[in-house]
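Quick review question:
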């Protein structure tokens, strides 16, 4: 889902019109589509290429409705209401057309379907579409070249939701639609295997796909999860909300949720970087170094055989051992001999408890945080400028800005989802200025790229401030 843009804000001011929908008089904006009004009124209309937040393209033709006085049916995802219009979504003609489209699409579907998110199957079931009467097209070879995503164009209905997710939301421009007629197909770059393309692995196309033509690798999405857990991505500080799909206490796959920071978007780390949770080398029980295994600087431990150095211990024994050693250091060398270094991956509550442990338990004020090293200057500037060291706006507010300046940051690497909002803003007309000694990915989209020499950023900013003050 996209954040609201300047153009969408303008559409909210469009006039309301009154028209008839399935025999009821309803109100809708002239800039809305019929399917949007229908959904708001609780009326279901089959749709596959339409997805809220994406541009409408009218590819699938499963959302056809009948409009009084018009000879042909109309795609409700592309048609706007007008005053006095009479629309029927469930007339005999409309339903027959909807069922025919679904049956034609079903005829080409492979036997193995994306069980949980196959929207085509779901709509076919709702409309009681039986077994397809039509012959299937020639089978397409599956592409398993990508480490995280499997491509099965047998299930592709060319709705282009993956294309729009890649091009309009993530702005990676990897997916395209190539060739013509019955040879038309979804391609990656210049019809390369997905694994050989410039795909960054964000998985936005997988989440957008309604049939399973694109799905997580190794067929994990074919399993039906027995539990879903809502959480927040544990990586960078953007705060993307996500859902873990779990079966037998093992994470199958991850989906983005419609949270305020990400609106369902995720990056490659948030969507696929969870296999460490089940890695065989991960410690699941406390270990204490064995008495017959003294510390040696020249010894390299084998991670597959840690028990030659350590032994298992209970939590009580391990905590008592660690606490005792810390107390011993404090008592013998003084409180200042101990220090604590926190992690940006912890919650605010965990950070509070950590500093409480160091200050109260250790009796030391030597407590620090990894993020302070890179954000100390920005916190001071924010405190002086607006009175608070916290971020003042959600990052997606860049979509409403006229100009965005990036200096001292590489969002596409460090905060990929935040970078998507910047790229969205540029596509919608926002001017981007990138100042960096390196040529980052966003530099190719920038209206102005200032590649200053390393360690001259302060001089550059002082020069900019001088011009602003002296020239107004």
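Suggested answer, residue by residue:
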């Amino acid at each position: 889902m996209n954040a609201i843009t300047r153009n969408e804000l303008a559409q909210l001011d469009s006039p309301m019109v009154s028209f008839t929908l399935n025999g009821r008089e309803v109100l809708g904006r002239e800039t809305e589509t019929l399917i949007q009004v229908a959904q708001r009124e609780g009326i279901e209309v089959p749709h596959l290429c339409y997805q809220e937040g994406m541009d409408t393209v009218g590819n699938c033709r499963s959302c056809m409705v009948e409009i009084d006085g018009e000879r042909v049916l109309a795609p409700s995802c592309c048609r706007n209401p007008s005053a006095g219009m009479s629309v029927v979504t469930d007339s005999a003609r409309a339903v027959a057309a909807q069922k025919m489209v679904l049956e034609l699409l079903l005829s080409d579907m492979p036997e193995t379907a994306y069980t949980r998110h196959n929207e085509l199957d779901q709509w076919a079931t709702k409309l009681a579409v039986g077994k397809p009467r039509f012959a299937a097209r020639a089978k397409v070879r599956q592409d398993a070249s990508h480490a995280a995503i499997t491509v099965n164009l047998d299930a592709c209905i060319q709705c282009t939701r993956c294309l729009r997710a890649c091009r309009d939301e993530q702005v990676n421009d990897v997916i395209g639609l190539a060739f013509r007629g019955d040879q038309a197909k979804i391609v990656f770059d210049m019809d390369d295997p997905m694994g050989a393309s410039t795909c960054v692995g964000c998985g936005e196309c997988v989440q957008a796909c309604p049939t399973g033509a694109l799905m997580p690798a190794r067929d994990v999405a074919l399993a039906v999860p027995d539990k879903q857990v809502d959480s927040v991505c544990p990586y960078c500080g953007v705060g993307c909300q996500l859902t873990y799909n779990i079966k037998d206490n093992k994470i199958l796959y991850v989906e983005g949720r419609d949270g305020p920071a990400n609106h369902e978007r995720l990056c490659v780390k948030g969507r696929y970087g969870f296999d460490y949770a089940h890695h065989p080398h991960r410690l699941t029980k406390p270990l204490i170094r064995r008495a017959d295994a003294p510390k040696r600087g020249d010894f390299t431990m084998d991670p597959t055989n840690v028990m030659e150095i350590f032994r298992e211990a209970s939590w009580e024994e391990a905590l008592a051992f660690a606490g005792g050693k810390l107390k011993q250091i404090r008592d013998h060398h003084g409180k200042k001999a101990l220090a604590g270094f926190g992690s940006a991956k912890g919650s605010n509550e965990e950070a509070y408890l950590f500093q409480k442990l160091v200050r109260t338990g250790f009796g030391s004020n030597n407590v620090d945080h990894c993020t302070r090293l890179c954000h100390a200057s920005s916190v001071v500037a924010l405190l002086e400028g607006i009175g608070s060291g916290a971020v003042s706006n959600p990052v997606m507010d860049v979509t409403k800005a006229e100009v965005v300046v990036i200096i001292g940051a590489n969002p596409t690497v460090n905060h990929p989802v935040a970078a998507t909002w910047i790229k969205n803003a540029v596509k919608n007309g926002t001017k981007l200025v990138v100042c960096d000694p390196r040529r980052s990915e966003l530099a190719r989209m920038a209206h102005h790229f200032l590649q200053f020499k390393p360690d001259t950023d302060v001089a550059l900013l002082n020069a900019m401030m001088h011009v602003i003050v002296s020239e107004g």
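Why it works: The first strand starts at residue 16 and ends at 21. Confidence is low (pLDDT under 50) at residues 1-7.
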